[in-house]
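A further point concerns the way the authors explain their paired sequence and structure data. The central task, working out the structure tokens from the amino acid sequence alone, is never made concrete. I therefore recommend that a typical entry be quoted early in the introduction. An entry of this sort, consisting of the sequence and the corresponding backbone structure tokens, reads as follows:
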Amino acid sequence: MIEARGLTKRYGTTVAVDDLSFEVRPGQVTGFLGPNGSGKSTTMRMIMGLDHPSAGSVTVNGRRYGDLPRPLREVGALLEAKAIHPGRSAYNHLWCLAQTNGIPRSRVDAVLELVGLADVARRRAGAFSLGMGQRLGMAAALLGDPGVLLFDEPVNGLDPEGIRWVRNLLKGLAAEGRTVFVSSHLMSEMALTADHLVVIGRGRLIADLPVQEFIAQSSRQYVRARSPEPARLAELLRSAGATVVAETDGSLTVTGLAMADVGEVAARNQVVLHELSPQAGSLEDAFMELTNDSVEYRGDVTTDAAAAARHAPVGALTTDPLSDLAR
């Protein structure tokens, strides 16, 4: 289990993580979501002892990471796939890690086989593609067969087969009773993988609840209706106070009326229905709605803004180094 209590991290006047408290429990995949700059990576670094909290605490199985006698046997993490010596082979990279925690050589072979790198184990890791680097990072996280696992953007650079493999792996690890904590920007993948969500914005906790409850909080709930008389049904529903959008597949998206009310309007007017079903918004819809006020970097997609960006002088484009630290 991972427990954060009042976790805070400041870089000068920049507050990257602000009084954050949550628990990551075993037996489920917990997704860690938030806009860019929300403090996700900083939080994960504090869990792993790479950054020290300005206030509050975070523990793994009741102890700080730095107090674990053989940390690789208790916690595995993929925070930066390219955090390897480029001149070392994949095999030697893992073998060096294994020796620091008393892990047998046989385990190195096992995890290389598990992540699909056995055939390239003797190649220099610096020549690996992004996807291969991700797989090597996964192997390092799994090396000590730990009960707690953290992954920051684990499917970055992977092809569809690799993404499915990671999804099944994470769900399988959780099914074994392990604690699995995953940060990702891919909402569609999180909807398929995560059981529970911890959502933050500007370093503060926004939501801590099961995925389906999170989606259900979205206001984008609607009713889908299909009829051989879609135009007539749409007119009747609008007269009853509904907002109706005709979709390209012939269905009607109805908001402002409950499903039962839509059915009663159709029945009173003898309109045949082929489908009448409640629809929930997607995880992406719920996430965008809930975190809208926490987005730090927002693009302007207007034509004027796009033209200005195309013709702006290079010197006009500046960055704030502290914003990178807060990610």
Notes: Confidence is low (pLDDT under 50) at residues 301-311, 313-327.
